[in-house]
């Protein structure tokens, strides 16, 4: 199972190769020691316009401003008239008085690099106005490939004569900012990112994208394509990154309650074990370490429970991931997001945090430290099977290993699950981007039904030895081990919740 070659060159930054199944891939290890190289990477760019002030816009504008301080490159935030985000942007030091905050189209017209970070559906609706306002030769920057998918579906195209690049952090905007700040005093802290060069009219687009990623604080940056990014990102957030996790913990909570657990214990065995010890084990030691630790701690019985759950869940999870991927690739998921934007307009979406298990979660979080929650073998088998189903689907669809392990494993265990542990899964579903929230609400119940109706009954049968052997000997473990060498040196520090963030 070999992924396509994935190498690139840079005239500015020192690159590194990592060993992956079937060959090597090029990556850029980041770090603040590279900041003196940023002026060369941003050659010809005197003004960067960050359009939008959602979580990504806020984080990226602040990180870019801090990293480029003293270079003469100005970072300016562009907002639509009447934006409710303007007060927070001003509080962060972007103001009309010094020219670092302005109307979105005016900022676009003045910028040499225009980074488009407004919501996906809004960008689909407004991109023609932005394109018309671009100055000749200005580069277009994206952090998501959604717009490409929309252009393909509607017969549109990016304007000729402009570099089109993407830098896509593998985590939420809050993570991008918080780990950047941690990186100021702890080496290696940051969120990995992918980059893509969709159009290179200047001949310098690769280094511009790499400089952008370094300035965001990415520990390492790997290459993708703009189409590959939105296929893997949108599919991933509907599967193992969010939707499948939501469906899994809801299904497991009900399963453990029916087995006689009280609400807090059922929450521990479903959600707390997943966002805590299972996540930590994968992050620090890899996927097979979960199964190995069960054998060391519980003996053959714990490993057998894991194996039965794994082989029961892998098939139905793979079917759902494949269905999701098809609907992302053919534009169905993108159209659903645009339709929802029209339907909902400025009305808030209803929240899913009212189900009984989330009240139990507050009890469990309050008693942390007084109880030790260990890996629950049944939960672990189901979760790892779903993760591996996404890994295999992405590999079959031709994604490079760096993208597969980041979108299927690293983003989950190093960025999203820590937030779920600090708050809960429902909080994440209710406070992520509208694109992700719509996907989780659509596909989470599908995963829940698949676990309840297919996986749980099948887990009563002996495990499929061939499927277990395929897992333990899977080439993803080599790719993940190579990527783990560039893992941030600290876990993300999650702040206390302060209520919903604007999108």
UniProtKB/TrEMBL annotation:
Residues binding Mg(2+) 2 are 233
Q: Which residues form the KARI C-terminal knotted domain?
A: 225-371
Q: Does the keyword Amino-acid biosynthesis apply?
A: yes
Names of the cofactor(s): Mg(2+)
Molecular function as annotated in GO: isomerase activity; ketol-acid reductoisomerase activity; metal ion binding
The biological pathway it contributes to is: Amino-acid biosynthesis; L-isoleucine biosynthesis; L-isoleucine from 2-oxobutanoate: step 2/4; Amino-acid biosynthesis; L-valine biosynthesis; L-valine from pyruvate: step 2/4
Cytoplasm found in the keyword field: no
Q: Name one GO biological process term.
A: L-valine biosynthetic process
- Annotated positions binding Mg(2+) 1: 233, 237
Sorted UniProt keywords: Amino-acid biosynthesis, Branched-chain amino acid biosynthesis, Isomerase, Magnesium, Metal-binding, Oxidoreductase
Name the protein family: Belongs to the ketol-acid reductoisomerase family.
Query: What protein is this chain from?
Result: Acetohydroxy-acid isomeroreductase
Species assigned in the record? Nonomuraea rubra
